[in-house]
Amino acid sequence: MRRRSLLGAALAGALATPAITSGTARAADPGPSLTLTGSTLLDRRAIFFVSYDGLVNNNAFQKNGLLTYKGHQYAVWYTADRNAVVGRRRLPSSKWETVKVGHTLRYNDSHNVISMGVSEVDGRLHLNMDSHSDGFTYVKSVAGLMDDPDGTSWTASRFGAPRSTLDGLALTSQFTYPQFISTPEGRLQLSYRAGVSGNGRNALAEYDGSSWTGLGEWSGSTGTYSSEHGSSTTRNMYLHGIDYDRNGRLHSFFTWREQNGAVMCNGGGITNHDTGYVYSDDRGRTWRNDAGTVVGRTGSSDRVFVTDAGLVVDPLGPDHSLMNQESQFTDSAGRPHAIISYVPGRFGQCTTDYVADRTANGRAFHVRQDASGGWRKTEIPVPLNSSQRTKLVLDTHDNAYAIFPFCRIAAASAASGYTDWTMLYDGAGLNAFGEVVIDETRIAQDNFLSIMYQEKSSGTTPSALRSLNFRLPA
Fold first, then answer.
1. How far apart are CA 97 and CA 94, in angstroms?
2. Alpha-carbon distance 298 to 203, whole Å?
3. What whole-number distance in Å separates Cα of residue 459 and Cα of residue 82?
4. Residue 241 CB neighbour total at 10 angstroms
5. Residue 470, C-beta contacts closer than 8 angstroms, at least 6 positions apart
6. Which DSSP letter does residue 443 get?
7. Alpha helix locations (H) across 335-442?
8. 8 Å CB contact between 257 and 198
9. Which single residue of 15, 49, 80, 429 could bond 28 by disulfide (Cβ 3.0 to 4.6 Å)?
10. Where is the secretion signal located (predicted)?
11. pLDDT of 24 above 60
């Protein structure tokens, strides 16, 4: 693979005017840049099959398929023989240790991803896997495994037996999209969908170091939504993410998907509409819109419904193939940012084949809340060339990086107000399939961007699973 150092020279003219303090000029923060330091091989023969236009080892909504904790990086995937494995490496070593955790993938369904989380209160690694509107498999490590990785062997004995509950807590018979999130106190929460596409509710469970508690559902599936074409009375909320900022606020962007296709101009489209935003200041118990109005209470009948006022931050009807579960991140001030993508109206007002139309004319947009509390939106001038999702991360200087399918990376500087999007890495020579998995946790720890991707294959022929590692500006 080619090694390259990519300095965002084109952005140099967009840096902010240096601040003046006590007569001394402070250097402006650097713009975005990437220095590729190398790649690592996780598996020469990872399982490969395409379903729902994606891969089970590299779905962008997977949180976390790759994470960093106390100087070690962890990854999860399914091998060619369908075994679920978890790997670790001591950074910056390229050597991965792997352990089979006692579960084999049941179906060729790309939704059935493996997600990881760390409960800091007791140093355990948690895995939730293999679910799509049905049961799930849960595995957790022994206590302290994550706190002393150098002094603890990496063997199957460090993990408990796979279970169909959270240590006895049964959640729902229609479970999908596990996402682990660590609370500021070191507890671990699990976000998931109960129900099915077009008729589902988002819910939370919480682990305190000794047991799991079901907090309950917080989004609702009922209410009437009407477009110019027709109406729907059932839906689900698709999350772009769910993340705590450094101040302890829990953020979530989302889109709605309607069950009734009558809301679309054409049956070949997709019923997703509108980008919404909510936040919680009490660890997910109460949800507010960006004006601060309470719009839902977890575990109660007062959930976040499509009919609630003040949820939509970027309105869009269901005729433009808006993608669900794209990406979000928060900046150093705790302000929320998101990537959304759809077919803009300049290419027509009715998509008739959402895969083909998004591939031909789809564009990604950066949506963010500014310092005044208003919302800004900028089109990223990079054609999607794919129906798939784009990931978003911010570096320590709040520069934004959009990681497109096939590992293409564009970036924009905070100093420009995110108006100077420029391509920094084109992914040439990687043979990447499409969507990628990002280590969202590593950037704050050692200023590196790690990306996990799988090489293209055909049919069900296994292919290599790899990660790229870029140094970000100091």
1. 10
2. 8
3. 15
4. 25
5. 34, 35, 36, 37, 425, 448, 449, 450, 451
6. H
7. 354-361
8. yes
9. 15
10. 1-27
11. no
3-class DSSP assignment, residue 355: helix
Dig out the tokens for 203 from the structure. Answer: 């819910």
Of the chain, the percentage scoring pLDDT greater than 70 comes to 94
Residue type for 372, please?
S
Taking only the tens place, the pLDDT of each residue in 77-104 is 999 999 999 999 999 999 999 999 999 9
What is the residue type of 132? H
Return the number of other C-beta atoms located less than 10 Å from residue 247's C-beta: 10
Q: How far apart are CA 24 and CA 229, in angstroms?
A: 61
Q: Is the dihedral of CA 337, 342, 348, 351 positive or negative?
A: negative
Helices and strands (H, E) in the chain, number of each type: 2, 34
As given in the structure block, the two tokens for residue 394 are 């911010």
In the numeric block, the tokens 């990854």 are attached to 75
Q: How many CA atoms lie within 13 A of 387 on its CB side?
A: 13
Task: Name the DSSP letter for residue 150.
Answer: G
For residues 1 and 39, the answer to whether their CB atoms sit within 8 Å is yes
